[in-house]
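COMPLEX REQUEST
Ligand: zinc ion
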Amino acid sequence: MEDIRNIYCVGRNYRLHAAELGNEVPKSPFLFSKPTHAQVAADGGEIVLPAGQGEIHHELELVVQVSRPFEPGMKVDDAVGSFALGLDLTLRDVQSELKQKGHPWLRAKGFKNSAVLTASRPFPGVEAALQTEFYMLKNGVEVQRGNIGDMVFDLQALFDFTAEHFGLSTGDILFTGTPAGVGPLADGDLLELFWGGERLGSCAIRLR
Ligand code: ZN
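STATUS: Structure written out below.
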């Protein structure tokens, strides 16, 4: 994805994921953001992540990029130019600590290389995306699989909400939430991200 501006992320947007972490399903979209310095490409190389701060969880998500100024009520299909798969990497133990203190999640969600992005493709439209499953292999074993039909808030609701409260325009990207199956990464893990039958990206994890 090119010329990324704001990086928005949606929390707890799949029921089974909310349940696996013991969280309630929110009644309205629940958003946070990451600094642009968080972005890194899953282009087959190594991705260095911080060691010694507890578990780092993978959250596999559909990521869409906005290609024109969006106002609430516009159609998502008219505003999304491209999509990719992403990993909303999370320092889970740090996040738990921050939650307890009532502090913002930035340290847990916004660290360098915490927004992993595969190669992008032209967005095929919501209907086509509903027909496609995305999944991730960790060391050759499937760990997460999702379909946007399982979202609590669909793309239209997420776009309307984001545009109304924060603004949404050209270059902004949205991580749309993770399905169940999140889990910790270890040094040397090989991750491969698939959209339908196509492998959009891969990376090797290096904890340092
Ligand atoms: Zn996430």
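REMARKS: The first strand starts at residue 7 and ends at 11. The chain is about 20% helix and 40% strand.
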